[in-house]
Write a structure and sequence with these properties.
Elements (H helix, E strand, L loop, with lengths): L1 H9 L5 H8 L6 E5 L7 H4 L2 H6 L12 E5 L8 H4 L2 E4 L3 E11 L24 E10 L3 E10 L3 H9 L6 E6 L17 H4 L7 E4 L7 H9 L11 E7 L13 E5 L2 E4 L3 E6 L1
Parallel strand pairs: 1-2, 1-7, 2-6, 7-8
Antiparallel strand pairs: 3-4, 4-5, 5-6, 8-12, 9-12, 10-11
Length: 273
Amino acid sequence: MNRELLINLNGNKTGQLKKFLDNFEGEPRIAWYPSAGEDFRPLLYLHPKFSNLNRGIRQEPQTPDLFIFTDYFPWKSSKFLDSKKIYSSSKTRVIIEHIEELPNLNLLPLEKELVHSQTGSQVTDKAVFLKIKIESNALGSISYPVIYAFTVNETFYCKKLIPFNAKISHIIHVRYGGGLGGGGFAKGAWLLNVLGKLHTELFITDGRLSWQQGDNFAIKYCLSIPKEKNVKLKQIREQRNGWATLRTGEGYYHKPTSDITVKDGYVNWYLVE
C-alpha cells in the first residue's frame, strides 16, 4: 500500500518524510506526475481552493495528501535543485521550504528503448523529499509535500508502484516524454491501461496519448501493464491556461480514445470509472 511505498522510498532516513509518515494516520492519497520536469503547477490546481473557484461539471475526488514526481532528468541544471525559488511572478511565487536527499532508487540501468540518454545526469536514480510552498494572489498560501524520484516513469511504475500495491488517486499526463526536451520514446499512452490497476480516480491529460515505440516496449518490459484500457472516463473540466502545454494549431483536437477529446493547447480532467 501507499504507506509501505513511502517507507521504502524513505529508507532509514530520519528527516521530514519520516516525520510526515509518523504524523499521518491511515494511507496517504498520492498524486503522480510522470515526466514532471520543473512543472509544479499541479500542486496549485489540485488544491481544494482551486476547485472551489473553478467548479467542474462533476464532483472531483478528494484531493491528494502527497505528490510523487518522476523524471529521469537528463539535464545538467535545474531551477529547483539549484535554488529554493522555483518560480516568481506578480501573481504567484513557488519556493522550496525544505529539501532532503533520500536513498538511491536502485532502478538502473536506463532502458535504451525508453530514453534518449542512457547516461542520464548526476541526479538520475536519486530521490529527494521536498516541502513546497506556493503563495498565490488568488488562492492564498498553499503547502504540499513532494517526493521527486529521478527515474524513468515506466520503471518506477513496474518496480516501485506495483510491488507495493500502490493506489494512485490522481495521475497527471502533461507533456509526457516523446522526445520533448530530451525525454524518451513514449508518449504515456500506456498510462491509460494502468488507471484501473492503480485505482486512479482522476486523470488529467493534454490528450497527447498516441502510441509510440516506447509505449509498446513498456508493455513488453513490464508485464504488470495491462494490454488494454479497462476503465471509462468522464470529463470534469476543460482547462486552457496555466499548464505547460504545446500547441499544434487552432482547431486541432487530440482524440486518442472514444472518451477522450482534448482541444489543442488545453488540458482536460477526467473521472475514472
